[in-house]
Amino acid sequence: MISKLITGIIIAGTIQGFVFAIAYLFSKKYKGTNTFYLAALIFAFSYNNLQFLLPDTGMISGRRMYETFYIPVGSLIPVFVYFYVLVFLNPSKKIKKKLRLLFVPFFVFLFFIAIPFKIEAIQGITKERYSTYRFLNGIQSSFSLLYTLVLLLISFITVVRFKKNTSQKRRLKITPSDTELTWLQNTLLILFVLTCFWAFALITFFSDPKLQFYFRFLWLGLSFAIYYLGHFGIYKYGITKDRKKIREATHRSASYSIEEKPKQEKSTSQNEHIVTIKTILIQEKRYLDSNLSLETLADELQLSKSYLSRIINHELGTSFSEYINSLRVEEAKTHLRNPEFSRYTVVAIGLEAGFNSKTTFNNAFKKFTGLTPSQFRKNPTN
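^ that's the sequence the OP posted. Answer follows.
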């Protein structure tokens, strides 16, 4: 019963993966470089599940599978993961041509192992040659496993470095928020865990070919990964697309500027640091940068963090985070009032206003307005 349930889930995940891939590749709505690599990754996962699930369920023999539609997609998957990470971090940046060399292992395995085996199988392959190809497929599987681990590690390091090096001065570009980067890191960790289980299943199988049922749990994990990548991939892509359109609309008009509220200040005479701070935050619109913090601003002004905090508390009568959030909320209110932005998601508007997640946006917005962003959009006269 449990075995049939697992098989059913794997089959459902595989079918869903093909549906996702087709939707991504052929729909104008999801057309983009990042969705292309996401679709390719999901398709590779699905095809990999399919070609090994069929012989496992007895629908076709393992040898017959290798003789017909077997493709060494195991060496393709890590490349698609790495490329997806690159375009996720820099949507407008093209993949370097030299990185296409990462596809070389796949073509080597395809043209020197998979296709020759199929040709010889048609002509009538001997037992010796069949044993040779089985040995070569074992090498291919082992290499693909190590290849996946290496590229996953490189991908993870790339995300970590990007997160550390993201500057507040890169505001003109659409960069992922901290929440989106965390999601990407978690996705890579999930794939790493699955790869480790793949290693366990492979080692177990090599020691005793009868113990191949561990692969079922791997395919089950891949089925959930397909669902996870498919649904959240669409969600992240939609947010990025909305942010880009909001950014373009904002830059076309000079009306999207907020005015600070005098009631936030305690003193009428401001010291020079406060004037500089307001110039940086309001005129340069640095409050829109989700990575801006009291520490980064203090470093830029060459002041100590504690001294800067005291200045803001004394002159503005509020904390740094409260002041920044008030500016961001005013920015978000401007967008939510604008009918042109009615088709964009509240999350995208919040991220463009400088918040780094949906939760922080909702909490701050409700604190300053008493309403959630969705409620305010319905009644923007508040």
